[in-house]
Predict the structure.
Amino acid sequence: MKELVVLSGKGGTGKTSIVGSLAALAGDKILADCDVDAADLHLLLEPVVRQKHEFWSGQVAVIDEEKCTQCGLCEELCHFEAIKDFRVDPASCEGCGFCYRICPVEAITMKENLSGHWFISDTRYGPLVHARLGIAQENSGKLVALVRQKAREMAEGGGADFIISDGPPGIGCPVISSLSGAHMALLVTEPTLSGIHDLERVVGVCRHFGVPALVCINKYDINEENSRQIEDYCLEQKVEVAARIPFDNIVTEAMVKGLPVVQYDSDSPVSRQIKGLWRNIAERLAWN
Amino acid sequence: MIISVASGKGGTGKTLVATSLAFSLKDRQPVQLLDCDVEEPNDHIFLKPVITQKEAVCIPVPKVDEAKCTHCGLCAEICAYNALAVLPDRVMIFPELCHGCGACSYLCPEKAISEEGREIGVVEQGDAGGIEFVHGRLNVGEAMATPVIRKVREYARADGLVIIDVPPGTSCPVVEAVKGSHFCLLVTEPTPFGLNDLVLAVETVRELNIPLAVVLNRTGVGDNKVEEYCRKENIPVLLTIPLDTKIARLYSRGVTLAEGMPETQEMFILLWNGIRKILK
C-alpha cells in the first residue's frame, strides 16, 4: 500500500480539483481529506457519511469567578496571553494547565475540549476519511494524524493499493502532520512569483521529512516564463515536473457541477494532462 | 484602526486585496501592512520592502541542569505536550513538541529547569515606498506558526491604518492573526469551494465579534451562490473584481493590481470608504 499526499504551499493552486480527478482515475484506494479546517474535497465526491465520531483533544482552562480572588498570578504567568480580566479566552488558551497548577485558591479547572468531528464516508470512487475541525480550534495537526491513521487502517484491512490525501496549504503543523511518513508528495504549483516562492518552501519541508516529491504546474500557460523558471528550479533540485496543466474555465465548470474534471470532460487538454499525471505517479509509487 | 484580510480558502486573493488596499491609501494616510501568513508570506513579493530590522522569534524550551535534578518526574507529569520524559538517570527533552508554556521551569521543586530560546522563525520590518511593512516567516520544518504570528502582531501601530494579511483556513493561526481587528474583509471567489470556505470563515469571524464584509474576486465564472448567501446573511459585498487574464498576468509577475493598473486605485479607496461607513 502506497500513500500519496497532495500539497502546494500556496493555497488555491488546484490541489483539491486534482485530488478529485485522481480519485476518479486511481484503482483500489482510500481517500483522505487532510485539510481539516477548510475541507472542500467532499464537494466533488458527494460522500454519504457512514460513521461520525467526536474528536476530543486537549483542554481549556476555566476560572471559577466565585473562588477567584483576582490576585492576577495566572494572567502574569500565562505565556499565551490567554487570560485577561480574570477570564480565559478559549481561542488563545493552549491547554498547558500552568494556571490550573499555580492558582493559590484552586479556582481554575481544566475542561476537556470537543475540537471537531471525523467521518468515514462512501463516495462513488471509494471510501473517504474526512474531518471537520471546530471553528477557531487548535490541534488541527492531531486531527490530521487521526484521519491518516484511520485511512491507513482501512487500506491495510481492505487491501487497498493506495491512499490519496488532499493536504492543507502552508508548511506548518497540519502540513507536517499530513506529510510525515507518506511515500510521496505531489506538489501542485502555479507559475506566479508567489507560487514559486511557496513551492520552494514546501520542497524544503518534503526534504526535511525525507518524502520524495513530484511537481505539477497548474495553469502553466498564464505565465510561461515563470513556468520555465519552475522547471529550471525543479531540475536543479532533482524534482520531476510530472504534468503541465493548461488554464481552462472547465475546471471551474466541473466544480460547479460537483464533478472531477476528468469525469466532466474526459477528452479536454486538462483531463489528458491529469491522466498522464496519474500514470506517472502510479509508476513512481510502484518503484518507491 | 486594524483591518484584517482573511479567507477560508487559500488563493482567493487576500494578498492582492491587502497589498492593493495599502498601495492605494499610502499617499493619503499612514499605512502599516502586517503579513501574518507566516507559513507562506507573499506580500513582500508585491511591495518589495527595504528591510531595515530583523528579529528572531524564539520559543522558550526547557533546559535541565542535571546536577540539580533529582529525577522526581514532576516536569514530565505536568507537561501537557509530552515534551519531557524523565528516566532514572536523566531527562529527555523533545523540543519540537514543546509549546513554551513555562510550567516545568516554574514548578520544578529543585529549580533545575531553565528556559532557553529556540528559534522557530523571524520577523522583518522595513519600508515599502511609504508603507510601513512587517512580515513573519516560519522556518521550514517548524510546526508552530502562532508564536510567529503573535510576534508580528506586536508590531501593530496604535494609530493610523493597520492592514493584516491573514493565513488561509479557520483554525488557531487565523484567530491569532484576526483577533483584535476592528474590521475583517473576507476574500472569496464565486465557486462551490469559495462558498463552502466563506461560510466557515464567516462563522470564525463572527465568533470573534468582528464586523465583516466580503470581497468577491474573479467574478464571471462559477455561479451566483456566494452572492445569494451574502444577501441572506446580510453581509455587504464591498468590492467585486472580475476574472481578467490581465490581472492574473500582473499577479503572476508579482505586481499588485493597484500598481499595475492605477485606475483601480479608486475602487480600493471606495472599499476603504465602505468600511468606514459600516464602522460609523
Summary: Chain A has two domains: 2-46+124-287, 58-114. Chain A touches chain B through 65 residues (CB under 8 Å). The domain at 58-114 of chain A is CATH 3.30.70.20 (Alpha-Beta Plaits). Residues 61 and 110 of chain A are 5 Å apart (CA to CA).
